[in-house]
Every structure is written in C-alpha cells, then in structure tokens.
Amino acid sequence: MLNENILRKVRKALALASNNPSEQEAQSAMLMAQRVLAEHGLSIQDVQESENEQEKNVIHEHATEYGKTIWWKKRLSAIVAENFRCFSYINKRSNASQIRFVGLDSDVSLAIEIFKFACETIQYHLSKYRQELKESGYRKVEVTYMGNDYLKGYLRGLDQKFKEQVEKNNWGLVLVKDALVVQEHESMNLKKSKPTGASFGGNNGAYERGFTDGKSFDSSRKMIAN
C-alpha cells in the first residue's frame, strides 16, 4: 500500500543516516522524510477520495515513556508535528508526563519515527559540543547554560530549515492537517504549556553554533532511492 511504501522509504533514509551520525546526514534524513511525505501527500488524498476510500482513523500515540519531559523535547515535538500534519501534547499522570502525537494513523507513525531519530541526533551533537566546552576549561554550570543555548539555536535552525523547504517546494497546502485531526485536537481543550524552567546563558556563540548545526544539510546527497 502507498502509506506503507512511504514508511519504508523513510525508515531506509533514517537507517542510512544513523550509520553515519554527521550533522549533514542527520538533517538530510529528517528533511528528506518531510519531502517524501509532502511529495506523496496528494497521492494519499487521491487514494482516500477514490472508490476504495478507507476510513480515516485519528489516533493518539506516545513518543516517550512516562517520566520527566525535557524542555527541548517539548519544542522538538511541536516542530515535528507541524511538519507531519499532527499535533503534539504533553500527557500527564501523577508526577510524570509523556509526549504524545495526535493525527491520522500514517502521519503519526511518521512523526514519531522522525521525532525519535531527531532526539538521538540532537543528543549526539549536544554531547559532542559539551565535551568540547569541558576540554576548553568551562565550568560545569557554564557547560549546562551554554548547552541550553546551543539547543535553543539548534531547534530554531531546524524549524527554519523545514519552513524554507516547505516554501521552496510549495508544500503548504499538502501539509495542511486533516479536518478530523483539527476537530479532535480542539475537543481536547488542552492547556497552554508553561514556560520552560531551563536556565540559559545568553551565549550568542553557543546559539549560533546550534543554529548552524540545525540548518546544516547536504541537499545534493540522495538519501532515498526511488
């Protein structure tokens, strides 16, 4: 089926990138996954509008297990959701929480794959950046603050890259969320998230480093075979 074919191509791209964890490979995988979804969006709609139209199922699926939800994962989930026709939200239970996505079945499956891969990629590059800071003699508290500045820049760079790709390829209408998904989200009456409690150092160098890494990718590299 078409949806399964899309999933297969995205999984192949992420597998190729994960074997070579560079900034360019990682960002290429995420952006190319968005491209595949967008390029096949109209075809998916055509299938849904055909005589063999299948029922649309709006699902809620968790992307993280219950525990402490890190601030940057909340922001990342919102970025991914926006670019894969879903909504993300925090589901709380007692003193724990988890990140969940709501959307059509195939869209949620893609969003969660991209989210998890992005988390691994960000953690890899953050760890490398923090190690550089430690080796340069920065104190522990400075490493923490500058690491958060780096993350803030990284997420901003990744978000901007997604938006530029959407604008460049005129994918705005393709990535519009299904009406059933919007209706489901509105019916949930979710409260707005509280401001992050993370501490930032306001270091422009760390932010710019993260921003550059978040936007960096090699557009000439063919990640997904037809």
TrEMBL record:
Pfam families: DUF2786 (PF10979), DUF7168 (PF23771). Residues 6-43 form the DUF2786 domain. It comes from the Bacteria. Residues 57-190 form the DUF7168 domain. This is DUF2786 domain-containing protein.
